[in-house]
Amino acid sequence: MPELPEVETTCRGIAPHIVKRRVVAMIIRESRLRWPIAAEVEDRLIGARFLGVRRRAKYILMDTDQGTLMVHLGMSGSLRIMSADAPALFHDHVDIVLDDHHCLRYHDPRRFGSMHWLKEMSHPLLDSLGPEPLAESFSGAYLYERSRRRRASVKQFIMDGKVVVGVGNIYANEALFLSGIHPKRASGRVSVARYEALVAAIKEVLAKAIAQGGTTLRDFVGGDGQPGYFAQQLRVYGRQGKPCRVCQTTLKEIRQGGRSTVYCPACQR
DNA sequence: ATGACAACCTGTGGGC
DNA sequence: TGCCCACAGGTTGTCA
Hints:
Structural class: alpha+beta
Order of helices and strands: HEHEEEEEEEHHHHHEE
Shape: elongated
Distance between the termini: 29 Å
Strand content: 15-25%
């Protein structure tokens, strides 16, 4: 479920509850995530004290005095603060038990998420990631330069984590609509001016979604269990067959790289 | 280097 | 009502 705004919401939700807390136990009910949770994670985490929570792309980085716990939520993961004695439900794979009788509980039906231990600030999974979409350095000029001579569609281009991180399917659809760009247009044939508009739209839609606590489509909950409220502001995602909110043209759905794309054939060129 | 696609896994909703 | 297939917020790895 989580795209960047949902991951950011999770970081902000859990940080006040884990920072300064010490880990007294780790309960791993299911270690088979995208990659098996290494024994090292438990070995190093127990006894460690949390110092802060950061985000890089869709990875949650929980810094401790012993190193950093890196968690990815995959397609269906969530992290919540619970009472340590709250009964574990189906797919509650991991509890990180804190010294205040609470725990950080990882729930993930599809198990596409992951947990790693970082000793240094580098890790193969982080090394080839593109810039953060909300960073100053992410600009129309940057996208223009990176896209020259590329034939991939503009939608697949902005969803490529080596180009820019954190633009998932929902927000890619939304940003392309907001900037009036047809999702199938070749990325190498988009002007710098239109890339400026696209970057502005990406930043705007992500910032607004973060401000609303993310998008809850089905069951996303933030670190404190609250749903996100951005879904009601979606312009195109999930609205195929419905009228465009700007021009009333029926929104069209196509498939790109196995993912659904929804767009307005009149507004997007 | 780029791009197309399968793979990982479970749950759900639509069509028949 | 029930069954089966397609698809769901992500990313990596492989192969052409």
